[in-house]
Amino acid sequence: MRTSDADILIIPGLGGSGPEHWQTRWEGKLSTARRIEQANWDKPHREEWAAAIVAAVKASTRPVVLVAHSAGVSSVGHAAAALEGLNVAGAFLVSPASERVLHSIPAIPADFAQHVRHKLPFRSVLACSTSDRYCTVDEAQELAGAWGSEFSDAGDAGHINADSGHGPWPEGLMRFAGFLRALG
């Protein structure tokens, strides 16, 4: 699959991925990419964030590839059951925030912080850094196993965001291109 064959839906986490974040850069670079907007980027609501994903998938005209980061990864998990049977080709999930961390953030409700623990109804890869303060490799591998996601070790890359020096993140774009090829 090429990027032109898919609707690429960008799903940021808390704060909505600012202008220097790799998600924002990919959105500007990939012609079929668009951001799923949330009513409040600083206070996630489980049902609202999941419903926004489902609505964007239903509005898509090509196979969908989800590209989520941090709390956006959690929202993909929350939306997964409602996405079953829809045209989702796959999900590229980057730097999930662990339940341990999500529960420690006052703006995040407990039901949002709790990860879904069943296989996703579409193909997925979950990439995590070995030095992410929001999720250990063990936590990420456990989540990847529960979701049936391929685990991808992103090396020593922090939370893989602009703050960790990953604005452009060319290695991620190469890994994403490989994921698209694997989707067919």
Description:
There is one protein chain. The protein has 184 residues and is of the alpha/beta class. 38% of the residues lie in helices and 17% in strands. The chain has one domain: 3-Layer(aba) Sandwich (Rossmann fold), CATH 3.40.50.1820. The chain has a six-stranded parallel beta sheet with strand order 2-1-3-4-5-6, with helices on both faces. 42% of the residues are buried.
- Unreliable segments (pLDDT under 50, ≥5 consecutive)? none
Strand content: 15-25%
CATH architecture classification name: 3-Layer(aba) Sandwich
Average of per-residue pLDDT values: 95
Note the gap between the termini: 5 Å
Total helical elements? 7
In short:
The protein has 184 residues and is α/β, with parallel strands linked by helices. The chain has seven helices and six strands; from the N terminus they run E-H-E-H-E-H-E-H-H-E-H-E-H.
Question: Which labels suit this protein?
Answer:
184 residues; alpha/beta; Rossmann fold; six-stranded parallel sheet; 7 helices; globular
Question: Could you give the topology of this structure?
Answer:
Blueprint: E1 7-11, H1 22-29, E2 33-35, H2 46-59, E3 64-69, H3 71-83, E4 88-94, H4 99-104, H5 110-113, E5 123-128, H6 137-147, E6 150-153, H7 170-183
Parallel strand pairs: 1-2, 1-3, 3-4, 4-5, 5-6
